[in-house]
Amino acid sequence: MASRRDPLLLTPGPLTTSDEVKAAMGRDWGSRDDAFIEMTARVRERLLDLAGGVGSHVCVPLQGSGTFAVEAALGTLVPREGKVLILVNGAYGRRMARICEVIGRAHTVLETGEDAPSDPDAVAELLASDDTITHVAAVQCETTSGILNPIVEIAAATVRAGRSLLVDAMSAFGALELNAAALPCVAVMASANKCLEGVPGLAFVIAHEVTLRAKVGRAPSYSLDLYDQWRGLEANGQWRFTPPTQVLAALDRALVEHAEEGGVAGRGARYRRNCQVLVDGMRDLGFETFLPDALQAPIIVTFHAPGDARFVFEEFYRALAARGYLIYPGKLTAAETFRVGCIGRIDEGDMNGFLAAAGEVLDEMAVTARGRG
Ligand SMILES: *Cc1c(COP(=O)(O)O)cnc(C)c1O
């Protein structure tokens, strides 16, 4: 699908982008110029629409990687005297806990195993037993394992208890359905360089307008103050500080391609095909997935490292890279694993190419026992 000058990125982002997205970065933009202001407005509107937040939420873009948006949302939307219940089943949930620690927001963690979805009933129970909790923070697809968390049920438990929800939708935004108003949630955090197939350098928060307007949090950071960033954009359409101009232009183009593919449904369908071809093919090669199919999101798949002592991940990685495929190391605390992404401008033909390469490399390495040890 993409041109093969560059390696295919079978990773959770940055990921493979189209030639047109790359080409969109080939010009200079004046950040105070009308054309750039219009592009900013167009992208914000489109993202808000994708998040189902028109009329209730606003889109606040931020310079930086996805974590900047997570930190800005927690700092601005959770009041200083608030307390966040963080649902953890991997590194990104743990990262939110660490952010709360650093920015001084009281929090408590509800942790499940890396192969167990966050449990809405346990959320309901905890909220009933601790009335100091004001907010719940959850990860839609925990990229650490690739597990899908039941975000609709978590939202229902949160709202029933009269608390507010923040959703880290980073790894699935644009490919899996999520509706900020229907959930409802006070914030959806995501970035340009995952399922939207833009390039890294821009994150955004879809924030509930009334909540943001109350600027209850009084952000503990100057540059990550979502309220100030929003007021700046609303005042004159301009970014508060130097914007990532080329990154925005790439996202503007990527959003056109997203719409042409049929939006969230179309993109999600291609990723589901990629995921199916990958999982079937890897199983044919003898690999085992870390997650059962029912818990797997079509974003990134974790495989057990083969038990065969001749399997050395670094060697496997380098031989695949030499063939033009970049995969990702595991990030689990519980098991020896590696990951292969299904997202980006790649299709099932690319997946089949990867599977053929993986088969060759395993034969070269003489890895015969490919199931978990
Ligand atoms: C990628 C990702 C983030 C943000 O990571 P950055 O490296 O800061 O872009 C946050 N949460 C999830 C679930 C992610 O997949």
**What is bound: which ligands?**
pyridoxal-5'-phosphate
Quickly count the helices: 12
Order of helices and strands: EHHEHEHEHEEEHEEEHHHHEHEEEH
Number of strands: 14
Molecular structure report:
There is one protein chain. With 373 residues, the chain is α/β, with parallel strands linked by helices. Helix content is 40%, strand content 16%. It has helices at residues 19-23, 34-50, 66-77, 91-103, 120-129, 151-160, 209-213, 226-236, 245-260, 263-285, 313-322, 348-365, and strands at residues 8-9, 57-63, 83-88, 106-111, 135-139, 141-142, 147-148, 164-168, 187-191, 202-208, 300-304, 325-326, 328-329, 337-341. A 7-stranded mixed sheet has the order 2-10-9-8-5-3-4, with helices on both faces. Helix 10 (263-285) packs parallel to helix 12 (348-365) and helix 11 crosses helix 12 (348-365). The longest helix is centred in the C-terminal third of the chain and has 23 residues, at 263-285. The radius of gyration is 21 Å and the shape is globular. The model has no long low-confidence stretch (mean pLDDT 96). It binds pyridoxal-5'-phosphate (PLP). Pyridoxal-5'-phosphate (PLP) is lined by residues 12-13, 65-67, 70, 92, 139, 143, 168, 170-171, 191.
What's the short version?
The protein has 373 residues and is an alpha/beta fold. Helices cover 40% and strands 16% of the residues. The strands form four sheets. Strands 2-10-9-8-5-3-4 form a seven-stranded mixed β-sheet, sandwiched between helices.
List the SSEs and their pairings.
Elements: E1 8-9, H1 19-23, H2 34-50, E2 57-63, H3 66-77, E3 83-88, H4 91-103, E4 106-111, H5 120-129, E5 135-139, E6 141-142, E7 147-148, H6 151-160, E8 164-168, E9 187-191, E10 202-208, H7 209-213, H8 226-236, H9 245-260, H10 263-285, E11 300-304, H11 313-322, E12 325-326, E13 328-329, E14 337-341, H12 348-365
Parallel strand pairs: 1-12, 3-4, 3-5, 5-8, 8-9
Antiparallel strand pairs: 2-10, 6-7, 9-10, 11-14, 13-14
Helix pairs in contact: 2-9, 3-4, 5-6, 10-12, 11-12
